[in-house]
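BUG: 3D viewer hangs when loading the predicted structure for this chain

Environment: internal workstation, default settings.
Expected: structure renders.
Actual: progress bar stalls at 90%.

Input used:
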Amino acid sequence: MNLTVVGTGYVGLVTGTCFAEMGHKVTCVDVDSRKIENLKNGILPIYEPGLDAMVANNAGEKRLDFTTSLSEAMQDSDIYFIAVGTPPGEDGSADLQYVLAVAREIGRHLDRYAVVVDKSTVPVGTADRVREVIQEELDRRGMGVEFDVVSNPEFLKEGAAINDFMKPDRIVVGAESERAIDAMRELYADFTRRSHERLLVMGVRDAEMTKYVANAMLATKISFMNEVANLCDRMNVDVENVRVGIGSDSRIGYSFIYPGCGYGGSCFPKDVKALIRMSADYDFQPRLLEAVEGRNDEQKGYLFGKITAHYGPQLSDRTFGVWGLAFKPGTDDMREAPSTVLLRQLIDAGARVRAYDPVAMEVARDELPGEWFEDGRLTLVNHQYDALEDADALALVTEWKPFRHPDFDAMRRLMRPDPTIFDGRNQYPPESMAAGGFVYYGVGR
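Structure tokens produced before the viewer hung:
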């Protein structure tokens, strides 16, 4: 099939590339000419393991192309994916201006039947608005072209997106017409050969809601376990034993019950906020969702609370090493990352920080305040152990694999006397840390 994917961010680029990998002819469209030129030269705007090689291979085989012209891409396409950003507004609602702008452009050039797919995470009712905008443009042109609008939300984990797309545990399709459903079944046939039950067909509004509820449920599990960890802190209970005890229950499981210093990224915070905002639009108070968001906001200050409890509120004579800047391993994404909260808190308290991340260093240089670098309050180092040179303490924020089994003897030699570890992901056994000469603080331990 011939596909057009509008938007070359995380969702759009992964979606387009994976469809091309399965033999479809895909054109990815973006208004950012520099991004398109970079993609044509094999330079990706995001980090995702394995994606660069897949892009290069499919572009070389002429199955994947990039352009700034949607009208040009539409000449041969059967299905159009809208995969542009929906950033949160000040009130938490999703900003649909980019989605609707794409819909309007499609309406200006559509000349035969097509399926328009909302791949972006959008509020319930967005497909109706997309349909109205396209129809308005067709009416203005006097065109009687038929089309369908489908909701096909993505369920990709950053760091594992290719595997999630190529081997999905479910594909949600929200559609109202059999013609559109048949087109989506054909498109996803190669992804559902092992089990046709993986493709779940439902109403458009149902599909739109499913995406938000999935992320809100996962965020709820994280915030619940963080709240339990905070209680364990006060009750002299090791939350890691509690986690194993409840995770062994098949009704609960181990996924997303690891205590830590808060969740971040482009999905969970944004989608919880959007669901809260949607609730307000329907005069409903989402007490649980508000608590999930509140707990996560507080949890991002957890490590700093441990630090000031240990050293006191003034940190002007202290140096801290920070391991991990991305919001999770496997990505360079720092949106809503707990590290950014900790860095600001440390620097505002007068501390100096030496930070390292295996992937997110360039993003950090672009995203973090320039004055932090200029006056030496924050230094980004080239190696994880460089972050510990003459440091009073280590704060582990992101659980990258190289941080799991470090050389503790080397760490102790590099750090100042009474080296301290503030472990925001419970990577290290407290007993081993104490035996190794470290003062250790975990989350709920």
